[in-house]
């Protein structure tokens, strides 16, 4: 059943996001304002070391008040290709330059709330070139892919996009 969009009004705008009200109608005729957030796409990368490990960051997210492992990633800047964003974010957040990138898949992270898409990549290897320039992580470590299910079960994977990419690779996909 498809909803009908009659219009959209933004009630707040910023460089990070726009908060909007959409005038929608359900198939049964009910009509109401639905809140939605318009955000830039994001890109992330799982750097693999050839020994079954992924380069992850351990960070705190103040919004949820939780710590967790994440793949490095961030916003796709205006005019930037997602692949370049993923490589840039890995370098900025870890100090490691990725090897060749492979596109894994794109995830509409929370389509009932916002329109942002996470573009996910894998890198075959990475080279340490210095310290992170965008310090977001308390730790940066090569974490065995085999440990991902246990980390997820303990709530130690910090984002659904990170978990999706890691499990996808653990399952032998994207190689």
Could you characterize what this model shows?
The protein is α+β, with helices and mostly antiparallel strands. The protein has 2 domains: 4-39, no CATH class; 42-170, Nucleoside Triphosphate Pyrophosphohydrolase (Alpha-Beta Complex). Helix content is 17%, strand content 46%. The chain has 3 helices and 12 strands; from the N terminus they run βββββββαβββββαα. The strands form 3 sheets. Strands 4, 5, 6, 7, 9, 10 and 12 form a 7-stranded mixed β-sheet that branches. It has a 3-stranded antiparallel β-sheet with strand order 1-2-3, with no helix packed on it. The longest helix has 13 residues, at 82-94. The chain is elongated, with a radius of gyration of 18 Å. The protein starts with a strand and ends in a 5-residue tail after the last helix. The mean pLDDT is 94.
């Amino acid at each position: 059943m498809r909803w009908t969009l009659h219009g959209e009004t933004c009630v707040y705008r910023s460089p990070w996001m726009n908060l909007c009200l959409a005038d929608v109608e359900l198939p049964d005729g009910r009509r109401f304002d639905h809140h939605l957030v318009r955000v830039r796409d994001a890109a992330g990368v799982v750097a693999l070391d050839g020994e079954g490990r992924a380069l992850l960051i351990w960070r705190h997210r103040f919004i949820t008040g939780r710590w967790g492992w994440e793949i490095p990633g961030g916003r796709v800047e205006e005019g930037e290709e997602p692949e370049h964003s993923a490589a840039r974010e890995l370098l900025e957040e870890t100090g490691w330059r990725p090897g060749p990138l492979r596109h894994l898949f794109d995830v509409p992270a929370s389509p009932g709330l916002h329109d942002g898409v996470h573009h996910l990549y894998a890198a075959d290897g990475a080279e340490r070139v210095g310290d992170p320039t965008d310090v977001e992580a308390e730790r940066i470590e090569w974490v065995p892919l085999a440990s991902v299910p246990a980390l997820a079960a303990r709530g130690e994977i910090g984002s659904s996009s990170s978990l999706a990419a890691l499990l996808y690779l653990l399952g032998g996909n994207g190689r």
